[in-house]
Amino acid sequence: MRILYFTRDYTSHDYRFLAKLTETGYEVYYLRLERRGHSLEDRPLPGGVRIVPWAGGQKPFRWRDFPTLLTDLKRVIRAVKPDVIQAGPLQTTAFLVALSGFRRLVSMSWGYDLLIDADRNLLWRWVTRYTLRRSAAMVGDCNTIQQRASFFGMPAARIVAFPWGVDLRHFSPASPPAARPFTLLSARGWEPIYGIDLIARAFVQAGRDCPALRLIMLGNGSQAARLRQIFMQGDVLERVTFPGQVSYADLPRYYRMADLYLSASHSDGTSISLLEAMACGRPVLVSDISGNREWVTAGDNGWLFPDGNADALATTILHAFKQREHLPEMGRAARSLAEARADWEKNFPQLFKAYEITRRQ
Q: How many domains does the chain contain in total?
C-alpha cells in the first residue's frame, strides 16, 4: 500500500505516526504544507519515509498560494499514485486533498481545527463541511472530536476515534528529587489558546500565600514578553525556571521533577502533554473543558478548574500543596489510567480501521 501523509508542519505527532507507518512495510510518502519559524520536533524524519518535493513546505502557509499549491498537489497525486492520503488539519491540508478530487482521503483532526477553527466564520464552517463530506474516513483523538465531526455532517460509521497515546516506556514514573521545593510544571506552548497567562497570574497569586512554590515553564511562543512581565510585576520571577524548548529525550526528566502538572488550555482534544504527565505518574490540574474531562477525575488523578478562572486555579494549587501527602497515590492512579487507555503501541492500530473504511467508499 502507498500512503501519502500530508501534514501542516513537522511535529512530534507526525514523527510518531510516520515512524509506526514505516514499520508496517507500506510505502510512506511525506508532504509538508509549511515550515514555520521555530522547530516543533527535534528528531529527523523516520528512516524509510520518502519526502515529496513540491511547491509547499519551505515557508509559512499563505492563502494566496492556495491555487498554486492545489495545482501542484494534483501533480503529486498523479506521480505518487497513493492508495490512501492521510491529511490534516481539516481546513488546510485535508481541504486541499478534498478539492483535488482524490477519493480515498482519511482526514485527521488535530483538535483545534474542529474545536476552534471550524467556528471562525461562515466560510470556515463551509470548508469544514466540504472537507468532511469528501473524506472517506476521519480520525480523531477523543469523543469530543467525534461529536464535533458528526455535528458537521460526518457519518458516525466513518469516524475512527482513539487516543493517540504516548510511549509508556519513555514516559514512566520515578520519584522526584528529595528535599526540594513544591514544583509545578507547565508544558504547553506560550500561545493564547493554551491560557498560558492564566498559569502565570495564578502562580503569582498562589505564590503570595505559599513562598515554597516553584514553577517550571517549558516551551516558548508569542506570549514570552507578557509572561515575564506578569512574573516580574508579581515579584516571583526568581521562582520560575525557563528551560526553553526541551527535546523529546529530556521531557520525562522534567515531568519527574514536578509534583503537579498544570494546563490552562482553552481548547483541547486529548492533550498529549497531559497523557505524558500522567504516564510519568504525576497528578494533574487542568482546565475544565470537554477533552480534559475524558481523562481527569477530581480527587482521583488530579483536579479540574473552571476554564479561564485564574483565581480558581490559584486556589486549587494551594489545595494541592496542602494535600501533598496524597499526591503520590493520585500519581499512581494517573499512571494506571495511562496504562489502560493511553498506550500508543496498543492504540495506533486503530488507524487501520480508517484505511479499511476507504476501501468501501
A: 2
Query: For strand 50-51 and strand 137-140, is the pairing parallel, antiparallel, or unpaired?
Result: unpaired
Cβ proximity of 102 and 57 under 8 Å? no
Q: Are 162 and 124 in contact (CB under 8 A)?
A: no
Q: What is the mean pLDDT of each run of 10 residues along the chain (361 residues)?
A: 96 93 95 82 91 95 96 98 98 98 97 94 97 97 95 96 95 80 95 96 97 96 95 97 94 95 94 97 97 95 97 98 95 98 96 94 70
Residue 174: inside a domain, yes or no? no
Is 177 part of any domain? Answer: no
The whole-angstrom separation of Cα 175 and Cα 280 is 10
Same structural domain for residues 105 and 140? yes
pTM for the whole structure: 0.92
Domain shared by 133 and 79, yes or no = yes
Check residue 117 and give left, alpha or beta (phi > 0: left; psi -120 to 50: alpha).
alpha
